[in-house]
């Protein structure tokens, strides 16, 4: 079977539905509605039209030669998901799930968010479709992504800072699941990545796979060949699976996911789930996760709120297990260096999440050499990260832009 | 047969009401949680539901979250669960079920967990995030060891899922009274009564109702149509506020009914 044809609930040994019984009816309902929608030309047309007339599909590709000089001279091509409406790939999935919410007749949507990009996308869709919207966001993340909190509130969403546990994405998901258990009849949980119980990993992937489908054709048109390698940042894994999927059955194309290495994958402070984790169950699916010997989740750390998650989607766990994709850690420092480099060489300020993929591409370019072409998913733009970048590089006050 | 089902059936045959009481292991510390569990049983709790603290308890409300977070911060380790079960069952007779999210069992090893629980004198497991569909290893391990296994039934579960929960549960079926997470609620849903009726129609012989149960009146009311009532957050709160003796006193009032005799 082609790798592209793999569906849930299981990806090899990974995936499944490890949820409270109270949620089974809801996820069954979503799975059934999605199975119909998938084959329904009207649904697919509506979604494509939203892409064309609202979020800005197809997104362009941009070749970045001045950046590529630092990447061993390989050709580097960016897939510009940062140019989507709301500023990241997250809108692709949200518009799909929001259309499904309409079909299910539900009037309230909830979501978790880390970097705030999924929350902003969900708040945007809720405004567009006239739905009530509640976003759960770890308190730590509401502070480091304050701009996105303001965007969500401006769009009419209620943002609830989550104070339990590590006060980051993991805990936002816990709180959103608690809300969902209590309000499942009126509420759709618009999940933001390719983790969670079936059907989310499959459905979110399907809504994101347009990234790779477009990029594959665009790179072929530009270079006449498939890329040597595809690089993406991996938090839960939605932008990565989105760009990987179209290439899964192209054996010459190497696929690389870059996880948040934080202060170093050999320190306790990282979010390198596949690199350092073991199989286990978290948030409804069996996959890799960062955990202690008792199966308690270990808190992750990353400068990037969107990658600061101790789990990962089951399809990535499977692609890693079968050797189809490789996963490597990228430290905070390497990511911030890459963020600065792309800004200074190409005039594009990436999200810190996406900067992990850029740092990975620099490493890959040096390994693969000047004959290689590397396609990088630029999953989001960096506006939301100015507070973090300003502090990191000393861009505020008298420090006066001494970043180098 | 099942130790838990036997205890429930015997109490009901004698015209009594069944009270299942929940406490987390290791809260406020290991010794006090054992004392509190013993106090519950000595004050009328028929079946103990001993909870394993877990980092990501998606089915739990603020009271139980606070307690299990404190237990983890105080150094709770999985091996303490078996120790706690042993210490309670050495002192009192009531069956002790562990309530656990699935990942700790998975990491310990499902078979090893079942063996160690049986060796400690435990009666079985309640698994809030393990549905029968994903429970193959646990079904085999519990059959091999004779441990009870309690699956949940929700107001939104289909008839087919209810039948499956009944068929695969041993001890009792845990009827989720209301859509939501743990925590005391003033009014119990009519949903609970309806769900128990549906479970009965599907052939359930042993059904206990939990989530949101906190008063003697609710315990009595539930015992009017189900085989037992499960109380969690209210007991945990009394333990947090007044220690093991307060939890024991609440258990006494819950099990002796609203009139207090
Ligand atoms: C721009 C951007 N890229 C990547 C991610 C990580 O998520 P995922 O791994 O699901 O793509 C996020 C999450 O917030 C994001 O905002």
Automatic annotation (TrEMBL), chain A:
<protein>
    <recommendedName>
        <fullName>Tryptophan synthase beta chain</fullName>
        <ecNumber>4.2.1.20</ecNumber>
    </recommendedName>
</protein>
<comment type="pathway">
    <text>Amino-acid biosynthesis; L-tryptophan biosynthesis; L-tryptophan from chorismate: step 5/5.</text>
</comment>
<feature type="modified residue" description="N6-(pyridoxal phosphate)lysine">
    <location>
        <position position="90"/>
    </location>
</feature>
<keyword id="KW-0028">Amino-acid biosynthesis</keyword>
<keyword id="KW-0822">Tryptophan biosynthesis</keyword>
<dbReference type="Pfam" id="PF00291">
    <property type="entry name" value="PALP"/>
</dbReference>
<keyword id="KW-0057">Aromatic amino acid biosynthesis</keyword>
<comment type="function">
    <text>The beta subunit is responsible for the synthesis of L-tryptophan from indole and L-serine.</text>
</comment>
<dbReference type="InterPro" id="IPR006654">
    <property type="entry name" value="Trp_synth_beta"/>
</dbReference>
<dbReference type="GO" id="GO:0004834">
    <property type="term" value="F:tryptophan synthase activity"/>
</dbReference>
<comment type="subunit">
    <text>Tetramer of two alpha and two beta chains.</text>
</comment>
<dbReference type="InterPro" id="IPR023026">
    <property type="entry name" value="Trp_synth_beta/beta-like"/>
</dbReference>
<dbReference type="InterPro" id="IPR001926">
    <property type="entry name" value="TrpB-like_PALP"/>
</dbReference>
<comment type="similarity">
    <text>Belongs to the TrpB family.</text>
</comment>
<dbReference type="GO" id="GO:0005737">
    <property type="term" value="C:cytoplasm"/>
</dbReference>
<feature type="domain" description="Tryptophan synthase beta chain-like PALP">
    <location>
        <begin position="57"/>
        <end position="380"/>
    </location>
</feature>
<keyword id="KW-0663">Pyridoxal phosphate</keyword>
<keyword id="KW-0456">Lyase</keyword>
<dbReference type="InterPro" id="IPR036052">
    <property type="entry name" value="TrpB-like_PALP_sf"/>
</dbReference>
<dbReference type="InterPro" id="IPR006653">
    <property type="entry name" value="Trp_synth_b_CS"/>
</dbReference>
From TrEMBL, chain B:
<dbReference type="GO" id="GO:0004834">
    <property type="term" value="F:tryptophan synthase activity"/>
</dbReference>
<keyword id="KW-0822">Tryptophan biosynthesis</keyword>
<dbReference type="GO" id="GO:0005829">
    <property type="term" value="C:cytosol"/>
</dbReference>
<dbReference type="InterPro" id="IPR011060">
    <property type="entry name" value="RibuloseP-bd_barrel"/>
</dbReference>
<comment type="subunit">
    <text>Tetramer of two alpha and two beta chains.</text>
</comment>
<feature type="active site" description="Proton acceptor">
    <location>
        <position position="49"/>
    </location>
</feature>
<dbReference type="InterPro" id="IPR013785">
    <property type="entry name" value="Aldolase_TIM"/>
</dbReference>
<comment type="pathway">
    <text>Amino-acid biosynthesis; L-tryptophan biosynthesis; L-tryptophan from chorismate: step 5/5.</text>
</comment>
<keyword id="KW-0057">Aromatic amino acid biosynthesis</keyword>
<comment type="similarity">
    <text>Belongs to the TrpA family.</text>
</comment>
<comment type="function">
    <text>The alpha subunit is responsible for the aldol cleavage of indoleglycerol phosphate to indole and glyceraldehyde 3-phosphate.</text>
</comment>
<protein>
    <recommendedName>
        <fullName>Tryptophan synthase alpha chain</fullName>
        <ecNumber>4.2.1.20</ecNumber>
    </recommendedName>
</protein>
<keyword id="KW-0028">Amino-acid biosynthesis</keyword>
<keyword id="KW-0456">Lyase</keyword>
<dbReference type="InterPro" id="IPR002028">
    <property type="entry name" value="Trp_synthase_suA"/>
</dbReference>
<feature type="active site" description="Proton acceptor">
    <location>
        <position position="60"/>
    </location>
</feature>
<dbReference type="Pfam" id="PF00290">
    <property type="entry name" value="Trp_syntA"/>
</dbReference>
């Amino acid at each position: 079977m082609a790798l592209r044809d793999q569906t849930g609930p299981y990806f090899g040994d990974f995936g499944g539905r490890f949820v409270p019984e109270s949620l089974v009816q809801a996820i069954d309902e979503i799975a059934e509605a999605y199975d119909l929608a998938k084959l329904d030309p009207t649904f697919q047309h509506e979604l494509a039209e939203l892409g064309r007339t609202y979020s800005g599909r197809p997104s362009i590709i941009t070749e970045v030669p001045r950046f590529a000089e630092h990447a061993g001279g390989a050709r580097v091509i960016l897939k510009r998901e940062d140019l989507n409406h709301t500023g990241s790939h997250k809108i692709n999935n949200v518009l799909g799930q929001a259309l499904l919410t309409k079909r299910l007749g539900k009037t309230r949507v909830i979501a978790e968010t880390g970097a705030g990009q999924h929350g902003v996308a969900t708040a945007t869709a809720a405004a567009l479709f006239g739905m009530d919207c509640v976003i759960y966001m770890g308190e730590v993340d509401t502070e480091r992504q304050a701009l996105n909190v303001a965007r969500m509130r401006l769009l009419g969403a209620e943002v609830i800072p989550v104070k339990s546990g590590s006060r980051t994405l993991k805990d936002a998901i816990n709180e959103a699941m608690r809300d969902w258990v209590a309000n499942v009849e009126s509420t759709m949980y618009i999940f933001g990545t390719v983790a969670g119980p079936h059907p989310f990993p499959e459905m979110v992937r399907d809504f994101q796979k347009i990234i790779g489908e477009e990029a594959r054709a665009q790179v072929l048109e530009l270079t006449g060949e498939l890329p040597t390698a595809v690089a993406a940042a991996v938090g839960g894994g939605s932008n990565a699976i989105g760009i990987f999927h179209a290439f899964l059955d192209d054996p010459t194309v190497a696929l690389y996911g870059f996880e948040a290495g934080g202060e170093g994958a050999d320190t306790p402070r990282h979010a390198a789930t596949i690199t350092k984790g073991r199989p286990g169950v978290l948030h409804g699916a069996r996959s890799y996760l960062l955990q202690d010997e008792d199966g308690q989740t270990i808190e992750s750390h990353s400068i990037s709120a969107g990658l600061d998650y101790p789990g990962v989607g089951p399809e990535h766990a499977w692609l890693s297990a079968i050797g189809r994709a490789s996963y490597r850690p990228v430290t905070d420092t390497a990511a911030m260096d890459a963020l600065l480099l792309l800004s200074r060489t190409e005039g594009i300020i990436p999200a810190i999440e996406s900067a992990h993929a850029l740092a990975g591409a620099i490493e890959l370019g040096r390994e693969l050499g000047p004959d290689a072409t590397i396609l990088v998913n630029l999953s989001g733009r960096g506006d939301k990260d100015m507070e973090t970048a300003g502090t990191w590089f000393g861009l505020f006050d008298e420090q006066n832009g001494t970043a180098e | 047969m099942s130790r838990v089902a036997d205890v429930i059936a015997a109490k009901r045959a004698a015209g009594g009401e069944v009270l299942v009481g929940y406490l987390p292991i290791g809260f406020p510390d290991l010794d006090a949680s054992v004392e509190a569990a013993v106090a519950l049983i000595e004050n009328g709790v028929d079946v103990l539901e001993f909870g394993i603290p877990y980092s990501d308890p998606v089915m739990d409300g603020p009271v139980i979250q606070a307690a299990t977070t404190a237990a983890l911060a105080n150094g709770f380790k999985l091996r303490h669960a078996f120790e706690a079960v042993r210490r309670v069952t050495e002192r009192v007779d009531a069956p002790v079920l562990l309530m656990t999210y699935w990942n700790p069992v998975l990491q310990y090893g499902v078979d090893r967990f079942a063996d160690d629980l049986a060796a400690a004198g435990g009666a079985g497991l309640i698994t809030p995030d393990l549905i029968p569909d994903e429970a193959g290893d646990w079904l085999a391990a519990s059959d091999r060891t004779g441990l009870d296994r309690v699956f949940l039934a929700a107001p939104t579960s289909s008839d087919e899922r209810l039948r499956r929960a009944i068929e695969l549960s041993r001890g009792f079926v845990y009827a989720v009274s209301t859509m939501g997470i743990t925590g005391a609620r003033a009014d119990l849903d009519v949903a609970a009564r309806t769900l128990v009726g549906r479970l009965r129609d599907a052939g359930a012989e042993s059904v206990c109702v939990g989530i949101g149960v906190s008063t003697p009146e609710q315990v009595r009311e539930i015992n009017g149509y189900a085989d037992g009532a499960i109380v969690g957050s209210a007991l945990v709160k009394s333990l947090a506020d007044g220690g093991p003796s307060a939890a024991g006193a609440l258990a006494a009032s819950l099990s002796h009914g609203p009139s207090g005799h």
